[in-house]
Amino acid sequence: MTYTSQTLSELEKEHQNALNTAQEKMLTDLNDAQASGNLEKIQEASITFQNVTTELAAEYTKRIEDINALNHKAIADKEPQIYTNNRSNIDLNLLVYDGDRDYVIAFQQDELIQKTLVKVNKNSGKFKSRKHLLKSSLRLTKALAPMLHEIGDHCKKALKLKADIEFFVYQGDTFNASCYPPDDNKLYIILSSGILERFTKDELTFVVGHEIGHVLFEHFDYPVRQILSEGENDLAPIHAMKLYAWNRNAEISADRAGLLCCQNFEAVGRTFFKLSSGVTTDSLDFQLNAYIEQFTDLEEVLNDSNHDPSDWYSSHPFSPLRIKALELFNKSETYSAFNETITGEITEEAMEVEIKRIMSLMEPENLEEDGEHSEKIQRLMFLGGYLISNADGVVDDSEIQALSSIVAPKVFANCMMTIKGLTEQEMISEVQELTKELDVVLSVMQKLNILRDLSIISYADGEIDDSEVNVLYNLARHLYINTDFIDRVISDAQGV
């Protein structure tokens, strides 16, 4: 197929229509093949669908390039310029983490997500940040918190911010900070009393800069929980996995804004240390290099069967990954473009490649790679996902599509063929056998990734039934993972 649209908005519609047509054909072919018991046709339908979507994606990308060339759009280093200077005069397109930007571009081109966003904005209305904060917390004037306002003025200058900043505080021992949706000329940052009392000026500067970063990169444009709740009847489970992956990547961009304000990497390290340990006194001798080194070999820590790894997984990247990603940024030519006192030791490309590798520790397993146990792992993923989907008694087309997207065509075809003649109890028995075989060969990291991905799929419609949670609990038990991990993933999903 050759796309003919002349504008990006027309192209998005043309591309989505082509994808919908391909999906409808796959589901029709699957139904026909399953009814006739033809295994080859089931596999062929899955392969054809993936080939068609790959070709469409290639043609779509080519047409975008053609349209951009015709419109003479500015593209620096072949990267799209999607961030404006409406809120700041710094180069956000240079500062942003590529993983954050790439997901945003994909969301902009995803018709289902865009339609869901329209519904979210229509049904939610405009959130009155200042009104809510004035009712629920204490506004910190310059007279009440002069140091905090010094930090705000410094960050405004460092990030070339156009809006003013208003600070609020609420009672809470936990270390927490957030930035509420801004008005045109004002940003609202709220801090817990705990973080305000126990963090130094440099540490608070990083925290405040980080929260401003969320505003500069317009991270409020994609409220994950509201999107999944509003799109429960339209979005596929795979959308949930992508939204949560973006949510983690967005934190990396915000951290860079925090460092631009703080310009003290050791203070940033102390900030993460306090957030991780809760220790804010001098009872521990903090050393930045030792702190970074402690978490360098993350796989080894997670592969220790005696270690409870649930804290490492959440809607945010875990602290060791964030500090490592920021260490790379601190040594990069990219950072030197914003801070003339820095001599960039690594190129932007090298930095982004390495950060992507680090962040992949929290991404779904690459199940399509050939390997001794690959097919069994994929069948476990399929059967686990199917049992979760069927927990409410119905497996719909979007759930079948999601299952098709997380396993290879050959495995998908075999699974679709064999589940037709299996009872639920027989599927459960097979899952038990698979987990028993794989337990000795899977790393703890792989087990956690599988369970996290299945948890996210189960929450794709914005809610999760007790019956689905029970399936996840059983899967965790068979993989010898504490069920608290499932609670943590679901809790983080609900709290985004």
Automatic annotation (TrEMBL):
Membrane topology: Multi-pass membrane protein
Residue span(s) of domain Peptidase M48: 146-327
Domain Co-chaperone DjlA N-terminal: 387-484
Primary localization: membrane
SUPFAM superfamilies given in the database record: TerB-like
One Pfam entry name: TerB
Keywords carried by this UniProt record: Cell membrane, Hydrolase, Membrane, Metal-binding, Metalloprotease, Protease, Transmembrane, Transmembrane helix, Zinc
Cofactor or coenzyme needed: Zn(2+)
Stored CDD domains: M48_Ste24p_like (cd07325), terB_like (cd07177)
Localization, UniProt: Cell membrane
Name by which UniProt lists this protein: Peptidase M48
Record organism: Postechiella marina
High-level lineage: Bacteria, Pseudomonadati, Bacteroidota, Flavobacteriia, Flavobacteriales
